[in-house]
Design brief:
The protein is mainly beta. It is built from three helices and eleven strands; from the N terminus they run H-E-E-E-E-E-E-H-H-E-E-E-E-E.
């Protein structure tokens, strides 16, 4: 059972390593308010009758001679890239991934991860409509899985393996591909993912073993992946549609065991 659960994690890594999409939003440009010119009265001619002052209407505010200038809002060029990919360390995050292969099978993963714990729920639907659900927790040195009777079991397995800790860090995967020259990014434009300003890029993975293309959304401020969407193709000819979202980066939250 333990090995089966660990395999699920590794399968996800292989399937999603080639998906990608990033995005950012730019602030609109504000224009300074127009100034009202000062109107001067003509010089009075000596001897001319003096006009009585016009009565002031009650409640009417006095307008200043010159309207105050509104400072412009900060501007960001639509071509401005996000922060560099992989430039922000990650301690925790939540994620969701959906995959569908060319055989009609789908898999959905929902989870969260901290430095010492992880929670993962897997829902798989086969081509014939058969549905399977699995859920596991890693908390400290224990793994929690459901047995065949549906009851939670607590197993001492030691600290989370490195491959499990890094399983959903696609920032690391894409950064390594970029450093090797296997990843191309082209700016598409600003976007917002779950309220986070991002920059959307078109991506192409050139790994001969696993090729992929699509879109990746990188946080404008931190360069982290907030969404990926695309298609991967293996050397055997299989293809997988992938959508991945990540949020709550480096938030302070605790994953509690189910029992």
């Amino acid at each position: 059972m333990i090995r089966k659960q660990q395999t699920i994690v590794l399968v996800l890594v292989a399937a999603l390593a080639l998906g990608g999409a990033v995005a950012c939003i730019c602030c609109p440009t504000g224009l300074p308010g127009a100034s009202t010119p000062v109107v001067q009265r003509p010089t009075e001619v000596p001897g001319a009758p003096t006009q009585p002052p016009e009565p002031t209407r009650p409640g009417e505010p006095t307008r200043p001679a010159v309207e105050p200038t509104v400072p412009p809002e900060p501007t960001v060029s639509p071509e401005q890239p996000a922060a560099p990919l992989g430039s922000t360390p990650i301690t925790s995050f939540r994620f969701m991934a959906e995959m569908k292969d060319n055989k009609g099978e789908t898999m959905k993963l929902e989870g969260e991860r901290t430095p010492t714990a992880m929670h993962l729920k897997v829902t798989q639907v086969k081509a014939d409509g058969t549905k399977e659900e699995q859920e596991l927790y890693y908390v400290d040195k224990y793994m929690y899985v459901k047995g065949e009777d549906g009851q939670w079991q607590k197993l001492e397995v030691g600290a989370m393996p490195t491959e499990t800790v890094e399983a959903f860090d696609f920032n690391k995967v894409l950064k390594e591909a970029q450093d090797k020259g296997d990843l191309e990014l082209k700016v598409i434009g600003p976007a917002v993912v779950r309220g986070v300003p991002c920059m959307k890029y078109q991506f192409v993975m050139k790994d001969p073993e696993n090729k992929g293309e699509g879109a990746v959304y990188l946080g404008l401020a931190d360069g982290l992946i907030y969404r990926m969407e695309g298609q991967t193709t293996s050397s055997e000819g299989g293809s997988t549609q992938v959508v991945y979202e990540c949020w709550d980066y480096n938030k302070d939250f605790t994953i509690q065991p189910p029992i």
